[in-house]
Batch of 2 targets.
Target 1
Amino acid sequence: MKLLPMFSKIKRIKFLSPIVLTCLFYLMGCSSDSVIEEEIKDVKVESISIYGGFITEGGSSQLTVGIIPSNATNKEVSWSVSNSSIATVSEAGLLTAVSNGNLTVKATAKDGSGVSTEKELTISGVKGPPVLVESITIYGEDVTDGNPQQLTVEVLPENADNKVISWSVSDTSIASISNDGLLTPKSNGTVKVIASATDGSAIAGEININISGIYPSNLTAENMLLWQRNNGGWPKEPYNDFSGYNREQTEAEKAAALNTKDNTDTNIDNNHTVGEIRYLLGAYKSTNNPKYLEGAVNGIDYLFEAQYDNGGWPQYYPDTSGYRHQITFNDNAMVNVMMLMWDITKGANNTNSIDASYIDKAKNAFNKGIEIILQTQNIVNGKKTAWCAQHDEITLLAATARSYELPSNSGSESVGVVRTLMLVEQPSAQIIQAVIDAVTWFEEVKLLDIATQNTGSDVIVVSSPGNVIWARFYDLETNLPFFCGRDGIKKDTLAEIELERRTGYSWYGNWPKNLISSEYNAWKTKNGI
């Protein structure tokens, strides 16, 4: 007896047509995940409603529209009237009374759907013939800096009933203009700006604006200007290796750069400030963008300001914390500055675009730098030798920087110092002797028949017959190489310091090789030595 209800249902199903049954079984066998929803790419307007437009006391009334569906892709409409002697309508839907009477206003969709609607309106309260616009004068100037300019107009007569105007330009590739007359340049050239009356008078004013001062941009240069501090220098972070300058900055990075403009973390370490200046000078040469030259000159002014009266440059300025105040040859910091000063005096390496007044300033800064180099040359056992990576700016003695950078003679930094001395034309006897003494020292402290080997996990010293290298640091009393870990204690061999320092620093190198093998002889020949 319990089977009867089910049997009854089956009986009813059997009377369905085979086609319907097939569809039912297909739908029952499909999961909801298999339903494919067609992506709607362009939603057309289906209907338009016009609101407003009732004028009972003359003047104007703003028309608006309601669009169905609400998610139509393009909701813009064009306006027209059946009788412009009764009222006119602007592109934005402003209805302006001309005379009393009836007319039809029409709104047509701009999306190509062909949908439009009309509304019958009665205009009343117009007390006399309309006062139409008779003249429009545009006021503006030629653009010479590439920046936007706000244009203004004078519409006459003063008592014109409708003084609303419509702006346009003759060439949108040169400039664009907003509804309120803000002209935005896009490229150099001449553009005609038109201001047209919307009262049906057909009056328009025109002006030709010459646009100049738009230059190609360089992303890296733009980012360097973004990160340049207000004192003209650059920080070492966030782009210690310069790589972050060559990409679009994030909004967070832009905010950070702008919020730290007044920071005093500017320095010449790792080629910073000098490196940015040189890049900006090159960018100016290729683009003629005056912003890049201005940024470079501000950087040069910072270097002038940072130089000590005795001629040395500190690693950081104006930050004097820690060892940052010391005269710094480390990583060629001061040498990089002096090479830039030398180029300015010669108009070399894109520096010829800098104002000529900077030549004497750079020459003075370079000469002062030479004097401090001569005064800081270390004396070992009564003989002048080389230079430490950093010297105290008061005593001029070799000084400690980081814990593993002790007072010493540097087999690395001293090479750049000697090359700087060799730049001097018609060198004095003191300069000549300083170069000779330094090269003699390089010859005396060279290390024979050894090399370094990177094992992948360590750096070790190995036998290498015939090889010549130099140590990074030499003791100021014994002239022997030494090595130092973060504990600040001198060691005689590389193997004695911790692994992190062995692999994380350049303890040996062939830095003086080219200097003493070829450059020195060429210098002596040039100067008749």
Note: Confidence is low (pLDDT under 50) at residues 1-38.
Target 2
Amino acid sequence: MVKTAPPPSGGLPIESIDLRSALEERYLAYALSTITQRALPDARDGLKPVHRRLLYAMRLLRLDPGQAFKKSARVVGDVIGKYHPHGDQSVYDALVRLAQDFAQRWTLVEGQGNFGNVDGDNAAAMRYTEARLTEVARLLLDGLDEGTVDFRETYDGSEEEPIVLPAAFPNLLANGAQGIAVGMATSIPPHNAAELLDAATHLIDNPKAGTDDILQFVPGPDFPTGGVVVEPKHMIAEAYRTGRGGFRVRGKWHQEDTGRGTWVIVVTEIPWLVPKSRLIEQLANMVLEKKVPILADVRDESADDIRIVLEPRARTVDPAVLMESLFKLTDLETRIGLNMNVLVKGRVPQVLGLAEALREWLDHRRDVLIRRSQFRFEAIEKRLEILGGLLVAFLNIDEVIKIIRTYDEPKAELIRRFEITEVQAEAILNIRLRALAKLEEIAIRKEDETLRAEKAEIEKLLGSEARQWTRVKKEIAEVRKTFGPDTALGRRRSAFAETTDIPFVDFTEAFIEREPITVVVSEKGWIRGLKGHVDDLSNLAFKQDDQLKTAFRTETTAKILVMATNGKVFTLDASKLPGGRGHGEPIRIQIDLEDGADIATVWPYTSGRKRLVATTDGRGFVVPEDDLLASTKKGRNVLNVDGPDEARISVPVDGDHVAVIGENRKLLIFPLSQIPEMGRGKGVRLQKYKDSGISDVITFAMSAGLSWVDSSGRTFNLEQKELRDWMGNRADSGRLPPKGFPRTNRFTPY
């Protein structure tokens, strides 16, 4: 409700508005602007507004392929002055990326000067570099003056800009896109253009074809830096089907003989978006810190091509084992995400599968064809109208000349005498004397005949959807000639391979003696490792006002996972834990824990196992433990936590049902399948609370029943038929637990 207060000292009235409503309205406007005007590409031309404006501005500057270069500063100035009122550096960064052949599979800008390199070095300032459009950009812009797309006013109303480009090239999938909006993001890797065009042709011939059919033409991404995709085929298919997933990409290497039985490994291709300088630094650290003892030296012998030389410690080293270790420990293997979140029809954010994304482009190409044909049809009609008037003039040339010489208003008299239109009369009046030759009349008749034949063909095209798709198919075939797999430009760069069965060798663990230990964690976050597996912990000593939080058995070669209240998960080496003679040491010493955050829970890592993680407000999800391992002290962000809520629970997934109990002492049981599996996020609501939060969670097999242990060590178990009263769905409130459930509201003592 808006209230108006009296104006202060004769000024304008003050309106009182609800702060919550005002913030919601403004934040929504900001979110929509970010989604549609910055972060997400259009499914039709695969461009964000800044990229589209860059190409359009360069076209108006006549920076076509083969023309002279112009300063990048001139391009950026036109873009921010006419179309894109943002910072010049951000616009220049977008221009630079369009010109980097190691970032773009098909560059849209041809740069002259220093536009950065694969090492990760930045481009020179915009006053030093020059740019012009490439042939791919020309294809995206082709037909812009033929009524193929709509235009809108620029931000100040002084100019016009295209809403979308005609896009004769499948840019969305060919070049991919990366962007982070508000509440959503997009990540599309680049693909091979010839494969996409073949798939598009197949879609035209088989409109009902799905993603599985398309995969016979598009086996996977094609990165500008090459590399080897080692993602299993069924995972690639699932990712393309749903529009979400990822691809594991490795560097390409081979063994090179150096004589006398010695050899080196040469890496010739690295994963996409990995700066070579950072990769060399990682490999050098492997040597200096002896994390891979069988690696003796690293040399960067790159020139125009990448050549990273890895020298083994001895000639007896297995090269496959060495590379498997480096794939695990460095960016020689990375995971490229797939999240095909795009703007459908330029308006609605939607995650598309591979077939749907190609269909959006094909539908756009058909719309462009129809609009271009209608534009040409109207132009022909106007020209035929003029030609008709000219023919009238040639057939009655003497009378026309007489009228022009005699009448003060010859146009009106021509219209009345010959029953022609005003346009035809104007054309007659504009005839030059040299055009009165007989040959000119023949040329007009020939042009009239040609245009009428073209008009008839356009009428047939506009009246037949089949003809339209045939024409689109023909246009695609023309584009494919330029980007065919047998051309230097279109040849596939990324290969595919199956992962090897060679296990990763953790050399850090290889030199640690494997012994049983018992890890003890106190409430205040102190940790220690007791030798052997200790059953009785009652005699353990703690610091003043501290007590036991949790304890578990493991081995010195194991990894320990620590979840903090801020949602981060850290990794500790069990071999580096302090001994059990004292009180141990704070976990904070071994990790970079933010101020204000505390230790939520600690447990031993088990490969292949999954965990159910949850926050105090009762939101959670399932996450593989393999995705929780962190290689640095900074840990890994897992749970997105909004204050004052905290990450609290991490329990192993073992069974098919979930039991959750809140601080309000309400118990709820529901199927585990209702909880999504994620690598990171906020999760879904597990149980509904009014003024309280979650207390504990456990997963169990319904066939075995639900069990819990009270503070006295007694075990209780309820079978399936006894649990009916507490069965429900995720996000229900639940009801009071059965008799005998601990007052601590926990399923286990710790």
Note: The first strand starts at residue 3 and ends at 5.
